[in-house]
């Protein structure tokens, strides 16, 4: 895995992608620091991090678009996959390399709250919690971008799809408020989710009987709950979308709210996408 990390870091800093990412991250940090702290005479740096995070829409695709798509385009993926290094090590190594670049940029931005600390009283705990959320949010989006990159050999397509996916995470709370909250709509939504879950189970196990059994079991549970207490399904769509909103978890950190559940959620989120990336590559590898 170490060799993969070194290879990816070398690529980031022998091409423009790493420099572009770091330059824009630091430039945006400086601009919002001047506007949000210096000009506004405010010691709240968490607002700067929230503003910068919006630009993950563009920064994360830059960081992740080439991770796997470039290998596929140059036909070096087969050499990589037939090497002694496992697919898991390759995937985790690429993820760690991209995460290191993100962390390098984040650490450099520490200069701005340090400046605030020298000239004003600041809430150190709020800044620490905000930075933790900023990094976890970035890692979650990196895992999504890496997964998308593993699906195509075209870097531009990978970047566009990653942009669209990240954008969806940003507007998910708005979608939750706009979608219907009635019981029947919620039932259809939950049934669709159960169906998707059944497909994932089948794709992972290749056992149709197990997938059908699990799907039917969840549908039966859903039906029983509906007949016992139908009101349980009111507003389920909004609740589900808000629960899946990684951006919603990020805003908790920016308010200084440190919940173990939010940390576990982010860790589970990017581990799940790393698993999906590994699983997808393994399936294509043996076709």
Automatic annotation (TrEMBL):
GO MF annotation, one: ABC-type transporter activity
Q: Which GO terms describe its cellular component?
A: plasma membrane
Which of UniProt's keywords are assigned here? Cell membrane, Membrane, Transmembrane, Transmembrane helix
What membrane topology does the annotation report for this chain? Multi-pass membrane protein
Q: Where's it found, cell-wise?
A: Cell membrane
Bilayer-crossing regions: 12-35, 47-68, 95-119, 125-149, 156-177, 183-202, 209-228, 263-281
Q: Under what name is this protein listed? A: ABC transporter permease
